[in-house]
Amino acid sequence: MTATKNDIQRLIECCICCDYLTDVRETPCCHQLFCYSCIQSWLKKTTKNCPRCRSTTLTEQGLLKNIVVQRFVDNLQFDCPNALQGCSLKIARSDLVKHKRLCLYSPEKLANKQRLKLDESRSLLLRFKEGKTFITDKVLFDLAKLFYDEHDCNNARECLQMIKDQDNSQEIIILQAKVERDTNHYDKALELYSKAYTLVKSNSQRIELLSAKGHLLSKKGQYEQAKDAFSQALDLLPTDDDSQMKAEILNALGLIAKKCSDVSKKQQPELEPYDQAISSYDEALRIVDNNSKLWSDIISNLADVHRKKGNYNEARELYLKSLKQAESLYGPNHPSIADIMNNLGILYKKEGKYAEALDYLKQALKFSKHYYGQQHPTIGIYLTNVGDIYRKQGDFKTAEATYIEALTCLEQAYGENHIEVAEVLNSMGLVLKKRADYDGAEKHYKRAIEIVYDTFGHDQEHYKLGIYYNNLADLDRKRNKFDDALQLYQRALTSIAKTLGPQHSEAAEILHNIGQVQHQLGNYKEAIDYINRALMIIKREFDDKHYKYGMYLNSLGLAYAMINDYKIAYIHLKQALQILLNTLGSDHIEVCDVYSNLGDICMKFVVEIDQQKQKHQSEQQAKLDEAKAYYLDAQRIVQATFGNEHTKAIQFSSLLFIVNNYSSLSKI
């Protein structure tokens, strides 16, 4: 029997950190292999059981050293971590640390070369400013390009400003636009791109400038203008054009269609937004080179659309197709592989399969750390996704620690006011909200909002404002400050309506939350109206089988229960259960809530039967049995997700006690 590549991979990886084994230890109970530091940390937990077989007899003293596997792992050949910078050597794992220190392509050595080059250029610029030397406009432009290529945008800008005839050179204006773009001065960059457009002569240059404008407008959340720019670029191409440029533009149009439903509706009213995205991606795939990175990117983007639509199996197939292609292009451990692993992790998170999601995300981190080290911004983004998994699992301490690590990484890479930093702050706010630290959550949300304003301007709406204001409103709802919450929800709705459109699923999320406030205020009919509006949007954007449709039906059922219309409530909850079982599976935590609510409704029926003059014992017992089945399923999910000691698990034990002893308890 021949071992597969996956079998070997599983053998040499620790199933706690998902990285290659270090200082290997084997468990005597199930012979699973772990890094010594990982299993050591695990055994310090209160459970102190084996991570693989759950044996309670495992102790640190009982762990066995596995020298054979350690020797095998140490002799594995890896690409140099600096392969992306040009090193072509393969190194044994045991020699990686030494090689990284000595490698000519190491970040430190390249940084020294870069520093010397920059120092020479800065010295030349300083002598020119002091009048000690003469530099032509061409030399100033070449210096500006050098500074820009080495990410020194301040000196690049200064050189460009010193050029005398800068207003009539498209080359200079385009470089100025890139400098302003890369320093987050988006409006200035757009102005310069427009200016350059009036000077260029060829269609190919116009297409490049329109594409650059489109990407920038998309980044600003101005999707309608972005789509116009890309559409103009597409119109300038010959009708029979099958170039990579056309594929890139179609890919960009697909991203906009995926993001923004209302803009897409205006352009192609006969198609739903996600169908428009799929149409753009399919056309791009028809012409793109199958062996290119762009092909893999488009396949991943197409998978994203199916993930958004809740078509998880289709999304998984596409991600795996993209993964296979990327592995054939780059080998098994490239950063491009890590990106697809990250997407697969997000997909499994959506399905509530948190263990699988964590495995994929840790694999993504492993590959990226090998090439980029610990402090690359990609690491920060992946860590944020890992933190999301821990948050979903209810492990809020680990989630917060992971977010802090991600925040440190992104702040070091981008600075404290970058838009990616805002995303982590928002995620940290969600954790603090779960821990009832509403003041801490508010502080993080407000800082995230301020970053969006600083990045895109206080007079510019951006869809992220809608998301962050929505989360801020949730805090006031939790604090029972309902008037403040409603004001913030309206503010969030305005941002979403102006950027993504009033019929976008993000708008549905806010309408649903307003319905929740009305529910808490006792305005149940208003709550029903808002939830129905949210349901209509989800049905239009996705269909009535999407998981969000099921979640909102759950809320609708609860609202009907509050006006004592238990039959309608029961119908909506049963419908919600079927949708969530079909989309998320029988073990997802969202399904737990519906099981719990159905159990409660069944108990309402039991009490109603009790109050009738002619009691129907068999009907009452049937409803008690049904309630018991729902509570047992809810308890099973909570115990599997959070453990037997979780508050909700204990709560379901109490409810089951009431169901099992209803006859005797009702006589008290």
UniProtKB/TrEMBL annotation:
Gene3D superfamilies: Tetratricopeptide repeat domain (1.25.40.10), Zinc/RING finger domain, C3HC4 (zinc finger) (3.30.40.10). The keyword Zinc-finger applies. GO terms for cellular component: cytoplasm. The keyword Nucleotide-binding does not apply. GO terms for molecular function: zinc ion binding. Residues 14-54 form the RING-type domain. TPR repeats lie at residues 207-240, 296-329, 338-371, 422-455, 508-541. InterPro entries: SecYEG/CpoB_TPR, TPR-like_helical_dom_sf, TPR_rpt, Znf_C3HC4_RING-type, Znf_RING, Znf_RING/FYVE/PHD. It comes from the Eukaryota. SUPFAM superfamilies: RING/U-box (SSF57850), TPR-like (SSF48452). PANTHER family: NEPHROCYSTIN-3, TETRATRICOPEPTIDE REPEAT PROTEIN (AFU_ORTHOLOGUE AFUA_6G03870). This is RING-type domain-containing protein. It comes from Rotaria magnacalcarata.
